[in-house]
Amino acid sequence: MSELHLSRNTIHFAEPLPLQNGAILANYDLVIETYGKLNAAKSNAVLVCHALNASHHVAGPNPDDASDIGWWDNMIGPGKPVDTDHFFVIGVNNLGSCFGSTGPMSINPVSGKPYGADFPVITVEDWVNTQARLADKLGIRCFAAVMGGSLGGMQAMAWSIQFPKRLAHCIVIASTPTLSAQNIAFNEVARNAILSDPDFHGGNYYEHGVVPKSGLKLARMVGHITYLSDDDMAEKFGRELQRPDGESHDYRFSFGVEFEVESYLRHQGDKFSKYFDANTYLLITRALDYFDPSRRYGGSLNRTLAEVQAKFLVVSFSTDWRFPPNRSREIVQSLLSNKSEVSYAEIDAPHGHDAFLLDDPRYHNLIRAYFEQMLEQGVRS
Predict the structure, then answer these.
(1) Which residue is catalytic, options 320, 334, 340, 351?
(2) N or C: which end of the chain has fewer CB within 10 A?
(3) CA 116/CA 279 separation, integer angstroms
(4) pLDDT of res. 140
(5) pTM: predicted TM-score of the whole model, two decimal places
(6) Which Gene Ontology molecular function entries are recorded, alphabetically (predicted)?
(7) pLDDT tens digit string along 5-37?
């Protein structure tokens, strides 16, 4: 087992990018990190697609801040389930994000000011198209696997539909073929928290030298509730009151923190508001809402997945009520109807939607076994 070999680059694309909404982005940058080494045949590449608030920094310490560990560090690295001693892993920061790739904070070449609210609407399909262009730049004709959890899983599924010959394996974790009305409703509440913040200024808050922190904080609090299960929250926080020792625990009206769960949510919201961009949040949650690959096939997921060629691994978690197991089973059933090769696992885990990011031995052993099988079937490091 070797040390993690990490490399970060900003890739510029001068060729105009037609977007799903009809707009054209004249040029753009994507920030990527790679881990491991690409083999001579360029057949061992794994693309990792990130979820809402993540980035290209998938594994290991951030080169700019050693305390910032990659968001999927427990999954990817030497000797880990996705073993970078054998696989060349690519993490890409999606277009529209706020971690270096072109997005609302970037300078609009037309106005000379940050794009702000003028940044075009982005879809999952747009992201996949930019990722395919990235693969072209790297000389990768076919990925050994495209994988992701949550919104990342949507991108992996879109890859299998848009570029069926360019991935051998599609790994969809804690994801869904479309958002439910309830999910769209949660996203709308979070967006309205941002839009109603006086510091939002119609999305052009950069010019005013402010950040809509209150809106971002509330948006994150709403979202975070949906990532945890009821059992997990009960175990972590229960109904414990948070008051100084010796202070009365009689009932009282207060705008301050009373319960531990309140303290936790406020902490998460405060932290989020300091590093994430409000316009990016609006863009990415809309991309989540719009994702519906079956729309062009009359709503038939069977027809949508009829031409896929990749082998699939689909994973869900029993207490994930944001993207529940029955939505993963829809994907599996449609693949089986098309006689596609698919493996499915439903992990009985108490952590809700966030389970795909956590250390669960059954989950990690499953991913490890799947990637080891890929090696046995012909991927060479």
Answers:
(1) 320
(2) N
(3) 7
(4) 98
(5) 0.94
(6) homoserine O-acetyltransferase activity; homoserine O-succinyltransferase activity
(7) 889 999 999 999 999 999 999 999 999 999 999
Residue 29 is assigned to a ligand binding site: no
The answer to whether residues 69 and 101 belong to one domain is yes
Q: Is residue 1 part of a domain?
A: no
Say whether pLDDT at 226 is over 70. Answer: yes
Determine which one of 43, 150, 273, 334 is catalytic: 150
Neighbours of 133 (CB within 10 A): 16
381 flagged as catalytic: no
- The token pair at 169 is 């394996």
Q: From the candidates 126, 351, 353, 360, give the one annotated as an active-site residue.
A: 353
Residue 343 designated active-site: no
Q: What is the pLDDT of residues 247-286, one digit of tens each?
A: 555 556 567 777 888 888 999 999 999 999 999 999 999 9
3-state SS class at 241: strand
How many H helices and E strands in the chain?
A: 10, 14
Q: Which of 1-15, 239-253, 291-305, 334-348 has the lowest mean pLDDT?
A: 239-253
Average pLDDT in the chain: 94
Residue 290 counted as domain residue? no
Establish whether 101 is a catalytic residue: no
Domain count, the chain: 2
Tell me, yes or no, whether 155 and 189 share the same domain: no
- Asked if 104 and 46 touch (Cβ cutoff 8 Å), the reply is no
- Among 255, 285, 315, the domain-final residue is 285
Q: How many residues does the chain have?
A: 381
17 by DSSP, 3-state: which?
Answer: strand
Q: Are residues 126 and 188 in the same domain?
A: no
